Amino acid sequence: MKNPTDNPVARSLETIPATGRRRFIVVSSEDVEEMRHIVLEDVLQKHGRKILCWDHPVSQDVRRVAGRIISQNGLGYIEGQRRGTDAQDQDSKPWNIIVIDDEADVDAFTLSGRVILISTGILPVTRDEAGLAALLAHEISHGALRHPEESLSCLMFIYPFRCFLRLLRRDTRFLELVRLSLEAPHSRMLESEADMYALRLLRGAGYEGAALPRFLADLAETDKESDSYKIPAFLRSHPPLWKRIKDLEARLSSDHTLIGALSHVR
Ligand SMILES: [Zn+2]
């Protein structure tokens, strides 16, 4: 009888231990470590002088809060920061938290290989340490749950379909619409999963979970005039902010252990 591990599709199916969700992922842990170096080189080339030095006060602040969330949840360590001496720490994974000096860009995102980019434009929206922790916990969730690698794996199915459509129809706007309508539902699901997992990371690091919906409400105020509001809901890569806030508040009110953490602890 054929061993299921001989089947590449069966081998690529896994259950995420943290959430219990089944998924298809073809990027192995070894691939991630290789991609990590390529991603970092790419970020350096693209943003160059706009990257704040690791010892800049803003960068230090962001890295300190991120480091606390990562280490206290046993997810690894921030490259360049001191880590513990026990064997478990030595085996743990490095993360890169990169702050881009761009006041006009209200954004943060996570790339393959646990590389997180934060633009300085989003920092005023976080207001305080609890808000910054909320933003970082969401991004760290994407990295810890390997969402960038999962999205890359999904492209394996979407790309041949797009190529086939390209042969039938050359209208680039139509192709873009197809791409968005195929990718957006999966992307929205990953965003919701990152929000829920972020609540656990915040609790693990001693921050209050309620800071996340509060931060998203502040972001909604900033985001009102942006172009994302003009995109129909089914084509958006993120669920509407009001829905994310509502879902988070529902989770917080059904699980009081997520609210009761300390905040603003230095
Ligand atoms: Zn996200």
Automatic annotation (TrEMBL):
Residues 88-251 form the Peptidase M48 domain. GO terms for molecular function: metal ion binding; metalloendopeptidase activity. InterPro entries: Mito/Outer_Membr_Metalloprot, Peptidase_M48. One of its GO terms (cellular component) is mitochondrial inner membrane. Keywords: Hydrolase, Metal-binding, Metalloprotease, Protease, Zinc. Its cofactor is Zn(2+). It holds the Pfam family Peptidase_M48. One of its GO terms (biological process) is mitochondrial protein processing. Binds 1 zinc ion per subunit. Belongs to the peptidase M48 family. This is Peptidase family M48-domain-containing protein. It comes from Favolaschia claudopus.
